[in-house]
Write a structure and sequence with these properties.
It is built from two helices and twelve strands; from the N terminus they run βββαββββββαβββ. It is mainly beta and about 180 residues long. Strands 1, 2, 3, 4, 5 and 6 form a six-stranded mixed β-sheet that branches. Strands 7-8-9-11-10 form a five-stranded mixed β-barrel. The radius of gyration is 18 Å and the shape is elongated.
Length: about 180
């Protein structure tokens, strides 16, 4: 068993080993904390899932770099066989949208996230996953060559339940400072 993530690293799926082979199940990213608490890798789980209609793959989507085979399934509920505990996805509605907490920070630029087509989708600092819209990634990619520090201003995601595979908090930027020059986004 393993977890799958979306383009910015938020967990949004499970890969399970079953008697019939492998199965991939999608769950909403805001339920990741509940699902991960119920099912750590290697534990035996029982799931209820529904068929997920084949959808066109969104630009930049990823399952940790691998395309999801169709059909996929939607997780309805999950029961940990060892702990005898369970979670129903429908019991966790999406949190209301919030602007988040305004943050200004400067720190080391530790990495980048790219989609399956190689487009820049996020920057990694020591504290944040800085999510970029497609046009933003294209605009700044060349400016990042040789850059080791990054200044960022934006809104930190504060909604509960999301878990990012990097362990960092997602940030929606309003400005980036690269080599002393600030760019409004």
């Amino acid at each position: 068993m393993g977890y799958l993530s979306n383009r910015v690293g938020d967990y949004d799926g499970l890969q399970l080993r079953t008697a019939a082979g492998q199965a991939r199940l999608h769950f909403p990213p805001h339920t990741a904390a509940l699902v991960l608490k119920q099912a750590t890798v290697g534990q035996s789980v029982w799931v209820v899932a529904t068929n997920r209609p084949a959808l066109p793959k969104p630009p930049g989507s990823s399952a940790d770099g691998q395309a999801l085979p169709e059909p996929t399934y939607e997780l309805v509920s999950l029961r940990n066989q060892t702990k005898k505990t369970s979670v129903r996805v429908a019991d966790s509605p999406p949190p209301p949208p919030t602007r988040g907490k305004l943050v200004e920070a400067e720190g080391p630029l530790t990495g980048q996230l790219h989609d399956d087509a190689g487009r820049l989708v996020a920057l990694l600092t020591d504290r944040f996953v800085v999510e970029l819209k497609p046009h933003q990634g294209e605009s700044i990619q060349e400016l990042l060559v040789g850059v080791s520090r990054l200044g960022v201003a934006g809104y930190e995601r504060t909604e509960p339940g999301f878990v990012n595979k990097t362990g960092r908090t997602l940030l929606h930027p309003t400005a980036l400072t690269i080599n002393g020059q600030t760019f409004a986004l």
